[in-house]
Structure formats: structure tokens, C-alpha cells
Automatic annotation (TrEMBL), chain A:
Biological processes per GO annotation: actin cortical patch localization; actin filament organization; endocytosis; plasma membrane tubulation
Name of the protein described by the UniProt record: Reduced viability upon starvation protein
Record GO cellular component, one term: mating projection tip
Principal location class: cytoplasm
From TrEMBL, chain B:
Gene Ontology CC entries for this record: actin cortical patch; mating projection tip; medial cortex; Rvs161p-Rvs167p complex
Top-rank taxon, per record: Eukaryota
Lineage: Eukaryota, Fungi, Dikarya, Ascomycota, Pezizomycotina
Record-linked InterPro entries: AH/BAR_dom_sf, BAR_dom, BIN3/RVS161-like, SH3-like_dom_sf, SH3_domain
Name recorded for this polypeptide: BAR-domain-containing protein
Compositional bias segments (type: Polar residues): 338-358
Species per Swiss-Prot/TrEMBL record: Terfezia boudieri ATCC MYA-4762
Segments forming domain SH3: 376-436
GO biological process: actin cortical patch localization; endocytosis; plasma membrane tubulation
PANTHER family: BRIDGING INTEGRATOR 3 (PTHR47174), REDUCED VIABILITY UPON STARVATION PROTEIN 167 (PTHR47174:SF1)
Residue span(s) of domain BAR: 17-254
Length: 261, 436
């Protein structure tokens, strides 16, 4: 922080303390405050939106990545016995295609229509916050100058030129504060009104991308089925497969190398 | 570790080192080695299977919760935002009622989806992850057996080596004979133990591999069907999503662009969005007025600058503590000249930049107020540095020259006038020392 900035910070901190103590009157602009609260509400919602939009993409990627690794593992297990039924290979292929074609193909549109617009919208906030901060600082400066004028009026200084000078400074402070205040009070509602048309298209795009992903994922997965015995589905539904898993597991446990002896 | 375990560990250490560097005789059973390699692989793959199915389970869950979270957030965006929550009248209908409805519908579908997927996902947990977990447990036990076998192998090699050494001894004492007998026993015992474990592993590891395949097949099939079901449910539910709010027929990006229109440009037209870059500058115009008083001060401060500037090296002005008031005209030139010593010292660089930076360098530290020895006629000064005349009127000299002072001030950082070899001229006071 520069020296000038530091001085300002210290000065403003003093003013704030004096305000708390009731020494300096505080200006409050109700219209502006309402707008600022609205902006805060929107900011929170938009940030949440950004997080969730990214979360969905991350989850999707994590899911396919896991699928691929599972497919590899299964293939290794099957691999030693040779790909007898082609199931593992077909599964692996389906999963790889899902990753390479569906996910990669949807990745771009998802980013351009969902992630990027939302992030862009959220990227506006730091500037606005900076503006709000500045406005609050200028307000403090103005209040301080006004309090000085008031003091001089009540207790005139020996220097007769001091009052007009301070008044002039107070006027300057007021002008600069009002310019910023005005800017925020008019533009914040405009941005808030734009939020729906701005973000709404992303929602539709998200839904569509999800639809396409689900449809493609299902059809790719379903292709693997032809390599499986038709009755495995029945076995699965009946819980036979789980029973078999349990059974084999028990056999493995019974091996003397597993410490059964 | 127990005491027994510790002693064993110590006893085995030498052999372990030998085995590592392949010294002496080390048993190598190729069949076992291969089986062991396969076992390690299996160990690794089982772990991977376990971890990845867990990750898969988590990913699906987080995908769904992101969907729900997204629709909640967008609903918040659609809702009218009021700055005064307690006052219902401020809830203007400037939100997006159709959008909110669509959100709610969407959210409902995803919630349902999550509910209907829950048992399916539960199954991944109980039927895939748990068995894999249990298998890992068994594998750990088997790994223990394998470690034991390795220890027995070390014992076996160790005892054999001792025995061999004793046997090869030419003349055995009674003590040696005794030891040989003991060693024979040990070898026999170690061989037995080693063989037991080795054979056990050799016969059973292939069985394990066989069983593992048996195990993985139904597991994989289950996993596949679970996955298929998950995707089927997702597909089904999403397909049934019939919200008129969404135009699902056309291309994703095109529809997005169409619906979006120029909203982004509109929004970015707002100046507060560029406050850090543009907005602040714009508001600066005001700042200038605000600080009018201060500006004025600055101006006055800078006022004399133009006068001192002709020399264009005004930086040096700072090194004067009191600019000679009477020599305004001289100042300009002297200002110029003052730099030259520095130039000389650095070998006469003509670049202004380096002159500026080195100008003060050879100069002695800032002057202390000297006792006013008011200009005595024929006062002498000895040059401490070389000084080359820069402009007409300068007095050049070499270090060691004795200059006769014509006129000087009490401040050695000013230009004095002196006489040397019949020439009169100005020179920097701090280049000389008073007295001869």
C-alpha cells in the first residue's frame, strides 16, 4: 500500500470510529442500500451457480475416468484367460467411446454455453465490489468534510478563510461521492435485471447437454449387452450373481494360504 | 515385534543382504517367482477396482447433487430479488415466473432421479465395493503367507550355507563335528519348512488366480448391469422431462446464441463492470477538482522548476541544500556543470541517464555547516578531483592543483569562482579542499 493510501485508510478508520461514537453524522441512502442488498443476493446466487456448473462437469469427467480405469482393470483380470467372451473388451470399448466421443464432444458446448457465460458473469463482481468500496470510502470522506464544516460553523476559527475553504472541499467530496453513488444506483438494477436473460440460456443448454449425455451413455452401454449371455440379466435380477460372488469369495478365504489353516 | 521375531530378524539380516547382492547360493524358484508376480499384479488390480468403484459411486452422486444445486441456484436467479426482504411489496414480478416453474419441474425430476437411483447406487456400494474390500482383506492375508515363505527361504539358504561351510572344512574338531550335526538338523528343518510354504503357495496361488477370475466375472456382470440401470434410469427420466420452457429440438450452441442475443454486450456496456480499468479513470476527472487545493500546492511547488530546467538535469537540484538565490542565471549553467565531475569519473559517458545516476557519486557527503570564514582575499583551495571545464567560464583543474579563490560562499555544494594559472572561472566547491 502506498503512503497516501495508508494515510487515507487510517483517516477513514478514525472517521468510522467517530461515527460509531456519534461524533460524525452518517449519510444513508436508502435507495442505494436496497440496490446493494439486491446485488449481494444476486452475487451469492451467481457464485453458487458457477460452483455447481463446474461441479457437474467435474463429476461427469470423474465418472468416465473411473469407468475407464475399471474397464482396464477388468480387462487385465480377464486378459490372462484370453478374451473369451469379448465382454470386457466390448465394455472397455464402450467406455472409451463414451469418454472420447460423448464427453469430449459435449465438453466444448458445455464450456461455451454453461461454464464460460456463468464465469464471465461472476467475473463482473470484483469490479463492482471495487466500485462499491470506493463509493463507501468517498461517502466517509464526504461525511468527514461535512462534520468539519459543521464544527467550523459552530466554533469559528481564527482564520476567516478556513470556513469557505472547507466548505468548498466538502462540496467537492459530495460531488465525487454523488457521482459514484448515482452510477451504482442506476446501474446495479440494470445489471440485476439483465441477470435472467443473461443466465437463462445456460440453463436450457445444460438441460440439453444432460439429455444428450444420458441418451448416448445409455445407448453405448446397451451395446455391450449383446456380448453377454441373455440369461445373465435374469441372474442379475435374481441376485444369483451376488450369490456367486459370495461363494467364490468364500472359496478364496478357504485357501490355506489365506491363513485358514 | 516380539522378541522372538526380533531375533529371527537379526539372524536373517546377513542372508538378506547376501540375497540382495546375489552373494553365495540363493534359492530361486522360477515357478514361484512367476506366481508371485501375478499375485502382485492381482493385488494391485484389486485395489484399483475397489478404489475406482468407490470413486465411480461418488462421482454419480456428486453429478446428481450438482444438478440439483444448479437448478436451485438458477431458481434463485430467476426469483425476484428484493433488497427489503421483510416488505412483500418490494417483491416485484421482474423475475422470471416461467423460468422458476421450469426450475421447479427440473428440480423435481432430478430429485426423483436421485431417489430412484439411490437403491441402484446402494447396490454398487454393497455388491461391488464391499466384496472388493473383502477380497482385499484376503489378499492381505495371502501376502502375509508369501512374506513368511520368503523368510523361510532366507532361513533355508542361511542354514545351508553354514552347513556347506562346515562340511568343506578339512580338519574338523570335535566342536565342528557337533556344529555340523546341528547344522544338518537345521538344514533339514528349514528345508522342510521352506518346502511346505513354497509348495503351498505354488499350488494355491494358481487356484487363487482361477478363483479371482471366477470372482471377477459375476462382479463385473453385476457392475455392468448396475451401470446400465443407472444410465437407463437417467435416460428414461431425462427423456420424460417435458418442460415447455425448454426448446429441446434444436442445436445446443445455436439455441444458446439465439436465446442469449446481445445480453452480454448490454451488460458489459455498464460502466461499473469495468470500474477497475475504465471507471476509475472516468471518476478521476472529479478527483482533480476535489483535490483542488492540493493541486494548487503542487503547482506552486513545481513552480520554480521550469526555471531550473534548462539544464534538463534537474534531479541534481535536490543535492543542493540551498540553491544560491543570487545566481539564478548562473544556476542554469552551473546546474549543467555540476554533473560533469561524475562524468569524468566514470569515463565521460554522454548519456544523460548515466550522468544522472552517477552525478552525485564522487561527491563528498552532504556538507556540514562550516564556520563562516568570510571570504578572505587570496584564499587558496586544493583540488581533490579532476575537473574539466564544461562550458565557457568553467575553471578546469587536475587533482592537486592549488586554486586561488576569487569568490566563494560558505556552502561547498555551490559553484565558486577561482583563479588558476591566470584563468578565472567557476568550479564546484565540493571538488576542492580549502587551504593549500
Amino acid at each position: 500500500m502506498s503512503w497516501a493510501g495508508f494515510k487515507k485508510t487510517v483517516n477513514r478508520a478514525t472517521v468510522q470510529v467517530m461515527m460509531k461514537a456519534g461524533q460524525i453524522e452518517k449519510t444513508s441512502d436508502r435507495d442505494y442500500e436496497v440496490e446493494e442488498r439486491r446485488f449481494r443476493a444476486m452475487e451469492a446466487a451467481a457464485n453458487k451457480l458457477q460452483k455447481e456448473a463446474k461441479g457437474y462437469l467435474d463429476a461427469l469427467r470423474a465418472m468416465t475416468a473411473s469407468q475407464m480405469r475399471i474397464a482396464e482393470t477388468i480387462d487385465t483380470f480377464y486378459g490372462e484367460a484370453g478374451t473369451r467372451d469379448g465382454v470386457s473388451r466390448s465394455y472397455k470399448q464402450a467406455v472409451e467411446e463414451l469418454d472420447a466421443e460423448t464427453i469430449k464432444a459435449l465438453d466444448g458446448p458445455y464450456r461455451t454455453t454453461v461454464v464460460e457465460p456463468i464465469s464471465r458473469f461472476c467475473a463482473y463482481f470484483p469490479d463492482i465490489n471495487e466500485c462499491i468500496k470506493k463509493r463507501n470510502h468517498k461517502l466517509l470522506d464526504y461525511d468527514q468534510m461535512r462534520a468539519k464544516v459543521k464544527k467550523l460553523v459552530e466554533k469559528p476559527d481564527n482564520d476567516p478563510g478556513k470556513l469557505p475553504r472547507t466548505e468548498k472541499e466538502a462540496q467537492m467530496a459530495k460531488e465525487i461521492y454523488e457521482a459514484l453513488n448515482e452510477q451504482l444506483t442506476t446501474e446495479l438494477p440494470q445489471l440485476i435485471d439483465l441477470r435472467v436473460p443473461y443466465l437463462d440460456p445456460s440453463f436450457e443448454a445444460l438441460v440439453k447437454i444432460q439429455l444428450r449425455f444420458c441418451a448416448e451413455a445409455y445407448s453405448r452401454m446397451a451395446q455391450v449387452q449383446q456380448y453377454l449371455d441373455p440369461d445373465t440379466r435374469e441372474q442379475y435380477a435374481q441376485g444369483h450373481l451376488d450369490h456367486r460372488v459370495e461363494q467364490v469369495l468364500q472359496e478364496i478365504r478357504d485357501l490355506s494360504i489365506a491363513g485358514a489353516t | 515385534m516380539s522378541w522372538k521375531g526380533f531375533t529371527k530378524g537379526v539372524q536373517r539380516t546377513p542372508q538378506q543382504i547376501k540375497a540382495k547382492f546375489n552373494l553365495g547360493e540363493n534359492t530361486k524358484d522360477p515357478i514361484y517367482i512367476d506366481a508371485e508376480r501375478r499375485f502382485s499384479e492381482l493385488e494391485k488390480e484389486t485395489k484399483k477396482l475397489h478404489d475406482e468403484s468407490q470413486k465411480y459411486f461418488d462421482a454419480i452422486n456428486s453429478m446428481l447433487s450438482s444438478q440439483i444445486g444448479f437448478s436451485q441456484a438458477i431458481a434463485e436467479i430467476y426469483k425476484p430479488i428484493s433488497g427489503v426482504m421483510s416488505d412483500p411489496e418490494t417483491m416485484k414480478v421482474e423475475g422470471n415466473p416461467e423460468g422458476i416453474k421450469a426450475c421447479e419441474q427440473y428440480q423435481q425430476i432430478v430429485e426423483e432421479l436421485k431417489a430412484s437411483l439411490a437403491p441402484e447406487l446402494e447396490m454398487i456400494e454393497t455388491r461391488i465395493i464391499r466384496p472388493a474390500d473383502e477380497l482385499m482383506e484376503v489378499i492381505r492375508l495371502i501376502r502375509k503367507t508369501a512374506t513368511k515363505r520368503d523368510h523361510k527361504q532366507l532361513d533355508y539358504d542361511r542354514h545351508r550355507a553354514t552347513h556347506k561351510k562346515l562340511q568343506e572344512k578339512k580338519e574338523r574338531t570335535l566342536k565342528d563335528e557337533k556344529a555340523l550335526y546341528a547344522a544338518e538338523n537345521s538344514v533339514e528343518l528349514a528345508t522342510q519348512e521352506f518346502n511346505t510354504y513354497n509348495d503351498l503357495l505354488k499350488t494355491e496361488l494358481p487356484k487363487l488366480f482361477e478363483l479371482e477370475r471366477e470372482f471377477i466375472r459375476p462382479l463385473f456382470q453385476s457392475f455392468y448391469y448396475m451401470q446400465l440401470n443407472v444410465f437407463y434410469t437417467l435416460h428414461e427420466r431425462m427423456q420424460s422431462l417435458n418442460i415447455p420452457y425448454f426448446d429441446l429440438s434444436n442445436d445446443i450452441e445455436a439455441a444458446f446464441q439465439k436465446k442469449r442475443g446481445d445480453v452480454q454486450e448490454q451488460a458489459e456496456g455498464l460502466t461499473i463492470l469495468h470500474f477497475k480499468t475504465v471507471g476509475q479513470k472516468a471518476s478521476r476527472i472529479g478527483t482533480k477538482f476535489n483535490k483542488y487545493g492540493k493541486r494548487e500546492e503542487e503547482v506552486t511547488k513545481l513552480g520554480p522548476e521550469p526555471e531550473a530546467k534548462p539544464g534538463m538535469r534537474r534531479k541534481t537540484i535536490d543535492s543542493f541544500d540551498t540553491p544560491p538565490p543570487a545566481y539564478q542565471a548562473v544556476m542554469t549553467s552551473s546546474d549543467n556543470k555540476l554533473l560533469t565531475p561524475g562524468q569524468l569519473n566514470i569515463g565521460r559517458s554522454n548519456s544523460t541517464g548515466s550522468t544522472l545516476s552517477t552525478a552525485g557519486k564522487p561527491k563528498p557527503p552532504l556538507p556540514k555547516p562550516k564556520p563562516k570564514s568570510l571570504a578572505v582575499q587570496a584564499e587558496k583551495a586544493t583540488a581533490m578531483y579532476d575537473f574539466e571545464a564544461q562550458v565557457e567560464g568553467d575553471l578546469g583543474f587536475k587533482a592537486g592543483d592549488v586554486i586561488e579563490i576569487v569568490q566563494r560562499t560558505s556552502n561547498e555544494n555551490e559553484w565558486w569562482t577561482g583563479k588558476l594559472r591566470g584563468v578565472t572561472g567557476q568550479f564546484p566547491g565540493n571538488y576542492v579542499k580549502l587551504g593549500s
